[in-house]
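Pilot study result, target chain (352 residues):
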Amino acid sequence: MNTRRDFLCQMGALGTLALGRSSFVCLAAESPAVSHQDISRHVLAFYYPWYGNPAAAGGSRRWSHWRDIDENAKTIGSSTHYPELGPYDSHDPKVIHQHCQWAKEAGLTGWIVSWWGHGSFEDQATPRILDISAKHGLAVTIYYETIPGQAKTPESAAKDIVQLLEKYAAHPAWLQVEGKPVVFIYGRAVGEIGVAAWADVIQSVNKSFKRGAIFQGDQFSPKAAEVFDGLHTYNTAGHLRGKSLEEVKSWCAETFPRWVKLARDAGRISSLTVIPGYDDTKIRKPGLKVERYEGQSYIVQWEAAIAAEPDWVLITSWNEWHEGSEIEPSVEHGRKYLELTQKMTARFIRRV
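Predicted structure:
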């Protein structure tokens, strides 16, 4: 199962990777800064197309990621909560349409779709996600999770990403900045070759792919600000673990402006991540849990994010059911988090 907390604990993505400066500004010069004043505001949710159910018409025709399902008791052994849609299939067009409809109503502007390589289960779902999202006016980009092969190199990463862009980036739904397709790079992939090597990847992609690309790196550090076109983090759960609501508020008020400033001072796109909660205790022992506080933690994080004025707000997650970070409607929480999201996205997009 491709879940991510084990990696996050190893690489520090549950906290900020505190890497010291090094002198490779000359490499970063190949990745021109993007003025934040020219960036449209977005609210993007991390989206997981890795679920399969053989009973779903038009789906993948196999099980994927769900296990130990009891539809009568509405429990899933691999899921913290139970989806309102039940154990669905990510390839099912009806499911994708419903997700897009809900997302649009909640004020989301697009998806960051988990992507695990050419020909993968997630890759097979990508064309349908692009086509259906376009019909709903939602943008789509991918979360580049890992570099292929055993010997991971800047060359293999660049070749893989160019192939990805040639396959999908011309789609009208693909998220763009200044005519360039956006790609989010997860911390695992960043760490596989190191931040400095990603300057080589970006340079190579921009030379090989005619339009170039906008790279969003999963790390807040001076090094990352020199290399990537934008900074983000996937998950703040490690920071919020064990915190009271007041402590969540204080942490966000102190951290979010600092992260935005780091990106903005370097001329990079700034993104802040909000999470409704986190709970992977059904799939890991002892696991990690971050309280939702009946939605109040989510509101507090959103308030701090709006006050910090980033370019984009990212939501972890739409449907990472294994780790209990979803805002997608569930039996346990109903549509509460869609309603909260709608209120906060309206304020952020309108700069209220």
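One observation from the pilot: The longest strand covers residues 42-47. A full batch analysis is planned for the follow-on phase.
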